[in-house]
Design brief:
The complex is a heterodimer of chains A (about 110) and B (about 110). By secondary structure, chain A is mostly beta strands. Chain A is about 0% helix and about 55% strand. Chain A contains no helices and eleven strands. In chain A, the strands form two sheets. In chain A, strands 2, 4, 5, 9, 10 and 11 form a six-stranded mixed β-sheet that branches. A five-stranded antiparallel β-sheet of chain A has the order 1-3-8-7-6, with no helix packed on it. In chain A, strand 9 and strand 10 form a beta hairpin. By secondary structure, chain B is mostly beta strands. Chain B is built from no helices and eleven strands. Classes of the chains: A mainly beta (about 110), B mainly beta (about 110). At the A-B interface, strand 4, strand 5, strand 9 and strand 10 of A face strand 5 and strand 10 of B.
Chain lengths: ~110, ~110
């Protein structure tokens, strides 16, 4: 069963912050975050492997709460280049294939 | 040099035909995948291939078959194409299965008429 993402879409003004949530009904071993721009392939942002782990990537960071089977992606001081569809993906075992969430469409306006 | 490359990028064909999409990676990765992205942008895993071990998503019709001549190539063959097969097919690879970062190809847009 695929992870559930919320919100499905969000519109921001440049400089505003956003949070995208990802939750799973099954235990998660790892959570990945990807961004896909229109007409392009998904691009890797980060992997979170441990419960309670947080990672940062410029002004984009994420947290992973293993006990709650949830992950959140934080985008601060958004830029126009942040626009795209964000996907979380998870697996419940180290060797298992990743299952992607339904995606969150983010649009940043000037 | 493109890390993961797919051909063709666009494919338009009639229902009932058989078609193949080729994928090559030059990253030295052990695992390759095929994903299907439909018109609603859902990315669905179809296959994973690691050291000659094929893992199939049980929801994939057996008209779809992956073929891997070597570790750097994973081709997708589709028999008896149906309208619902229209989608963008992404090939991807990772250093390890499951936890490695996925590197995606540019995608192959298949349109079945």
């Amino acid at each position: 069963q695929q992870p559930v993402q919320s919100p499905q879409a969000v519109i921001l003004r440049e400089g505003e912050d956003a949070v995208i949530n990802c939750s799973s009904s099954k235990a998660l071993y790892s959570v990945h975050w990807y961004r896909q721009k229109h007409g392009e392939a998904p691009v890797f942002l980060m992997i979170l492997l441990k419960g309670g782990e947080q990672k940062g990537h410029d002004k984009i960071s994420a947290s992973f709460n293993e006990k709650k089977q949830q992950s959140s992606l934080y985008l601060t001081a958004s830029q126009l280049s942040y626009s795209g569809t964000y996907f979380c993906a998870g697996n419940n075992n180290a060797g298992n294939m990743l299952t992607f969430g339904g995606g969150t469409r983010l649009m940043v306006k000037p | 040099d493109t890390a993961v490359s797919q051909t063709p990028k666009y494919l338009v064909t009639q229902m009932g035909n058989d078609k193949s999409i080729k994928c090559e990676q030059n990253l030295g990765h052990d695992t390759m995948y095929w994903y299907k992205q439909d018109s609603k942008k859902f990315l669905k895993i179809m296959f994973s291939y690691n050291n000659k071990e094929l893992i199939i998503n049980e929801t994939v019709p057996n008209r779809f078959s992956p073929k891997s001549p070597d570790k750097a190539h994973l081709n997708l063959h589709i028999n008896s194409l149906e309208l619902g097969d229209s989608a963008v097919y992404f090939c991807a690879s990772s250093r390890t299965s499951g936890t490695g970062e996925l590197f995606f190809g540019e995608g192959s847009r298949l349109t079945v008429l």
